[in-house]
Amino acid sequence: MNLKNIKAVAFDLDGTLVDSIPDLADAANAMREHLGLPPLDPERIKSHVGDGIASLVHRAITDERHAEADGPLWERGYRFFVQRYSERLAVRTTVYPGVLDGLALLRALKLPLVIVTNKSERLAVPLAEQLGLRDLFSLILGGDTLPEKKPSALPLLHCCQVLGIQPQELAMVGDSANDVAAARAAGSAAIAVSYGYADASTLGADLTVNSVAELYDLMKND
Choosing from 12, 14, 175, 179, which is the catalytic residue? Predict the structure, then answer.
């Protein structure tokens, strides 16, 4: 795939730039204890991540991907989860190997970088700040920043509008079906990372990379 025409790169956050499962699992299991439920294995919680905190709370309560918790129970759980998680965003969350080097290389190419995540903006921005990522990005869009989130094309199209580029000049890098679907809907390049929360071979991306740093050689023009 030719990526020489790419003028900006959008990144998913959880499972792409950072491994946040330890702290998400901590908050989810603390919430379950608060609601009188037994803890879940962190791998189960990992399988519930990807569609934002509201969905994660439903799934963490029911332990089913497509079920919804009772309304009042969900509200209690949601309030507790957000309070707990916001206080412990980066206790055990780590930046994946190769991410900081890769982002620095892409910035050396004068490529604007953005984060497009389904995590709430009020959680995504402080998480990026606490992990030393915030200043590397021109824009951070959360799942609640706009009226629609991934897999909608809207967040990527908004990025293009802000940056003054065409959708085909944007690459979306992520680890989930939502990331690939959003890129497809926008007409942008879809790049998967091999180390994320989903099996990259099932995502149907245009390209799979083992490290963010690999993008430098694919996008440089010399």
Answer: 12
pTM exceeding the 0.90 threshold for the entire prediction: yes
Structure tokens at 145: 């920043």
CB of 143 within 8 A of CB of 52? yes
Least Cα distance to 25 among 10, 9, 3, 40 occurs for: 40
CA dihedral (134, 195, 96, 1) in degrees, to 10, reads -60
- Give residue 50's pLDDT: 85
The label of the residue with tokens 């209690």 reads 76
Cα 119 from Cα 121, distance rounded (Å):
6
Q: 41 catalytic, yes or no?
A: no
Count Cβ neighbours within 10 Å for each residue of 107-129 and write b for 16 or more, e otherwise: eeeebbbbbbbbbbbebbbebbe
What does the alpha-carbon distance between residue 220 and residue 4 come to, in Å, rounded to a whole number?
6
SS3 sequence, 17-49? CEECHHHHHHHHHHHHHHCCCCCCCHHHHHHCC
- Per-residue confidence (pLDDT) for residue 222, from 0 to 100: 65
33 pLDDT tier (thresholds 50, 70, 90): very high
Distant-in-sequence, close-in-space partners of 41: CB < 8 Å, separation ≥ 6: none
Condensed to tens digits (0 to 9), the pLDDT of residues 76-122 reads 999 999 999 999 999 999 999 999 999 999 999 999 999 999 999 99
Tokens of 214: 């690999």
